[in-house]
Amino acid sequence: MTKNYLLEIGLEEMPAHVVTPSIDQLAKKTAAFLKDNRISFSKIEKYSTPRRLSVLVKDIADKQTDIDVKAKGPSKQIAQDDDGNWTKAAQGFARGQGMSADDIFFEDLKGTEYAYIQKHETGKDVTEILKEIADVITSLTFPTRMRWDSYDFEYIRPIHWIVSLLDDEVVPMKVLDVEAGRKSRGHRFLGKTAEIKNVRDYVEDLRSQFVIVDAKERKDIIRDQIATIAQDNNWVVDVDEDLLEEVNNLVEFPTTFHGKFDKKYLEIPEEVLITSMKDNQRYFDVRQKDGKLAPDFISVRNGNSEFIENVIQGNEKVLVARLEDADFFFKEDQKKTIADYVEKLKTVNFHVKIGTMYEKMQRVHQIADYLASVFNLSATDKTDLLRASDIYKFDLVTNMVDEFPELQGVMGEKYSSIMGETDGVARAIREHYMPVSSEGELPDTKVGATLAVADKLDSLITFFAVGLIPSGSNDPYALRRQAYGIVRILDHEGWELNLNDLQAYLIKNLNVPETLDLNANEKDLDGFIIDRIRQFLNTKAIRNDIIDAVTDGRIFDPVSMINTAQVLQNHVADADFKVVVEALSRVVNLAQKAGIKYSDDLQMDESLFEHPSEKVLNDAVTDIYQKQSDDAEKLFQQLATLKDSINDYFEENMIMDKDEKIKNNRLTQLVITNNLIAKLGDLSKIVIK
User: Is there a cis peptide before residue 172, judged by omega within 30 degrees of 0?
Assistant: First the structure.
């Protein structure tokens, strides 16, 4: 007969961002604990609020499953003496298994006989197993921890109560001085102690004490209440899912309400208003039917609707104070020029080992100038790009960004537009931060995309130059995200960029202090960027062996690598893919061992040809050289036509001929052929099945 088991950990209020990952972790670890202990169940339901993490295990078995165990002991030579008597080692092995030496039998294992005991283990009662689930509670990990009282124990917040019920029976356990029972706690102000008599009553027992313990139900209530308010007031509310998640994890009994602020504050950029409401107060912004921001907001109270007018007035008062500050900063910032702010950046460190923000902008100007030519930007775009690169960090020293750091770039766009910069410059200042997350939005404009690449390249080059290289999970300057952003932008724009050429140019031309050695850790930087290319190709479901092929030993151009990988992936199902790759790989393998380096003036002597296949292959390769394209698809198709010529060549010719001249001539021919193949990568790494 199956039962249901409830575990609730009662805590001080947790930070909102911790609640969801913590309940997910508790459910996962509970499932693993039960599986490891051979306790079957049908599913685990998750419940959470700011003050509790709860799992309800449905249809939990009343005992462990029985198992048959064959335990391995010492070798026969050790288990028995010369007369066949059991040694102390054998007797100790048997006792350890709860059996006697007479239960031992021998089996051969790789030529040696070992002692074994076969035994049947009857499963323990589930209650005995669940007493150990305290280990699951203490094993949870959190981004921040705290200690309390005199305990040498760290947790997200102090534990105040634990509910541990198997149907209607308490399963005893203890964590620190907190003993498990059936008493939970209701809403901090509206509720009382909730005594859970049976697991099946858990949700309703807490509801009666003003706690909606089901996070999804709470979120649906908030969403429905917002929709009702919007409909009643003829508003449009685009519910921010991240904000909804955060608010949901701040309340146990949600009541949604709306308030107002003076229309005069609408003169402030709406990004500032929304940031003031969302990030500082956890309010949802409201729009009119025409899409314009309305002087209203929606918020959620942790409680019922009693005295809600007082709550509304209090929230309005707090918001007005924030908006007054924003209005003051907005007006004060416009009293200075962009040149004033740029000058101030000379005193702001980018990093103490690297230099100031002003110096970073100077370097980015040089990088952007180089990229503008590589990316074939128009004259207008190049003008905007270079102007943007000279000023794009200026908003960091404005009052508004000092108060609202999340508005960096946003205020740069606003202020630069107000102060007479072109739209191209203004948008680039905002877009250079993109993407702000691994899969975040990319820049819309070519100027913004180029500035974003230049800025991120400078960060990578300079941080690696001073040895600040990410290791393990440690990446304080988000260099992995920045490198991945470069790869995504280049792919999105279709911009080919030889990073080896870029690095060589920057090492020679970039104006950096003597303390910055751009040659330092150059190979580490190459590998770091290639790892991001591999990461990107994995998101495209490219085979790992193809990724190995295109990222090893070819021109260091992310877009070229990405396009080539996609071409090879597209052809893996071709009927002749195997024979094509096998033929090309034979050339690659020998060419790599030839000891001959390819150069444009490398030539073979046709007078040394002994067989027709040598001339056939030479003519075919020469034809491809004359027609070769940077398009990976066309090149693959051209190389695929060589398969028969290559196979005939190896069938008819001994490459390592006794005649040194003939041998070197044939190796030279293979090196010349491989130079074409290498444009696709190292095809010898492709696994042919």
Answer: no
pLDDT at 553: 64
Contacts of 636 (CB under 8 A, 6+ apart): 567, 568, 571, 680
DSSP E strands, 225-271: 254-260
Task: Let me know if 178 is exposed, middle or buried by CB neighbors in 10 A (0-12, 13-18, 19+).
Answer: middle
108 class by beta-carbon count within 10 Å (0-12 exposed, 13-18 middle, 19+ buried):
exposed
What structural domains does the chain harbor? 3-63+126-207 (3.30.70), 67-121 (no CATH), 215-322 (no CATH), 339-539 (1.10.3210), 561-685 (1.10.730)
Give the pairing type, strands 178-179 and 183-185: unpaired
SS3 507: helix
Residues 6+ apart with CB under 8 A from 471: none
Residues in the chain: 689
pTM of full prediction above 0.90: no
CA distances from 13 to 16, 245, 278, 283 (A): 9, 16, 21, 20
What residues of the chain score a pLDDT lower than 50? none
What is the gyration radius of the CA atoms in the chain, in angstroms? 35
DSSP 383-452: HHHHHHHHHTTGGGGSHHHHH-GGGTTHHHHHHHHHTT--HHHHHHHHHTT--SSTT-PPPSSHHHHHHH
Structure token digits, residue 353: 């080992």
Task: Collect all residues with Cβ–Cβ distance below 8 Å to 21 and sequence separation of at least 6.
Answer: none
Closest of 413, 396, 416 to residue 404, by C-alpha: 396
Whole-angstrom CA distances from 688 to 161, 234, 370 are 60, 63, 41
Q: What's residue 547's pLDDT? A: 95
